[in-house]
Amino acid sequence: MVHNIDSLSFFELKMLVAQLLGEMATLKQTIVELRDENARLKKQKGRPDIKPPNKPSGMDEASQPKPPQSPRRGGGNKTAKRVIHEEKIVKAVVPPGSRFKGYESFVVQDLVLRPHVVRFRRERWLTPDGRTVIAPLPSGVNGHFGAELRRFVLVQYHQGQVTVPRLLAQLRAIGIDVSKRQVMRMLISGQEPFVAEARDVLRAGLASAAWISVDDTGARHKGNNGTCTQIGNDHFTWFGTTGSKSRLNFLELLRAGYNDYVVNDEAIAYMRERALSGPVIAKLAGHADRYFETAEAWIQHLENLGIDDLKVTPNPVCIATEGALWGSVMAHDFLRNGVIVSDDAGQFDVGQHALCWIHAERLVHKLETFTEHNRKAQKKLRGLIWHFYRDLLVYRADPSPRRKAQLGLRFDRIFKRTTGFVSLDRLLKRLRANKPELLMVLERPEIPLHTNGSENDIRCHVTKRKVSGGTRSDQGRTCRDAFLGLAKTCAKLGIGFWDYLGTRLDVANQPNIPSLPELVRQRALACNSS
What we know:
The N and C termini lie far apart (74 Å). Helix 13 (372-397) packs antiparallel against helix 14 (401-415). By secondary structure, the chain is an alpha/beta fold. It is flat. The strands form 3 sheets. It has a 5-stranded mixed sheet with strand order 5-4-3-8-9, with helices on both faces. The chain has a two-stranded antiparallel sheet with strand order 1-2. Strands 6-7 form a two-stranded antiparallel ribbon. The chain is built from 21 helices and 9 strands.
């Protein structure tokens, strides 16, 4: 330390100030770290982690680069595109001697929402042979409520997430004479065509999809906890609510409404993969009966073969049934070459299976760290994973054998390392065991690296559960799942749900919306050929 400052030159004073400023910055940083460590030990909240300005989050950094946006153009003449339904002339108060110079247009959009009651006077005729002939009602009239009202109710309830009590109050406030029972009938009675179309959307999607992503969430039905499973991709969405979330349940949903059990080559291969004993497989493969129309017929077949009497692990009845269900999925040409992308939930691990990288990295992010060494190891590994993720995105856009080999070796270098952080090392070993599922994209570059699409899809079901609770009848549960899936599918196909319902309910002067399953097939065919 210099004591005689007066004897120092200007340059020496400048160097001394720089040195002291550096020491002060180091001391401040040490004090901050000690405060944070003290707060952590006391289980108090530390300082908020505020990112520098314009610095994206890790998730954003790992996402695909967004295409450059075109410069914002002026709105143009928007009114020229609108259909004018009514014209009104507004008079002006002017002094005498003024000259008329025409009109200045001002377009106002409004909504006409009022009751419209129609009395149909149907002709009645008595034929010479004594029969009475009554003129039929026009298309779209089903019961004492018109197609427009039924469309409004369906859109408000399923797309607008309005509860039945609020919907009833809304209709009565408008002037519609309706009861709660009648509203419920509009929601669930006579909706078989919509349910059938939702089922056919699933069949078309499974038959044509190169990949699907899946997810599930809790659901309430008849006062009991259940599970809603989402199945979909970029072209379609389907929901199915059941009382279980097992692999048996998932395989039953993949049959898309079929109820058969099939023992074919794919079923036998599934049973071998799941370690079913050789003698049991021989009994099933050697029997003349290979096709069973119902669950009762299949269970009876297992009993006749004595398989249900075996008390071993794994359960032979369960594995055999899973195999027969997978055989049914293959027999109907579903997911023949399709990849199932999931969040590593065990029930979804069937067929060609890929894992979500976002969920894999989340396991590392959620690890509890207790020392500075642990935190540094965690931070370093997360950085390596996100860099690897970005390179996988680049590979998807332009795959090549050279990049494929490099990425496979790089995966081993990342996940075979030893950090000294015991929990992290165990997790790395677990993730390394999932290498084929995590690197499925190297074989199939068209599949996504995450299940964000499924999580976005299933959010509407979560909202419906929070707003309306559960369902009370099987018919109500089926209709809710069908309409939510149809609304999501319409959005993915670029179709307005309002227009779709108008076409299906025979509302007058509506655009013709083709069959959604056919549109899903065409979209998948176009994507697969490109």
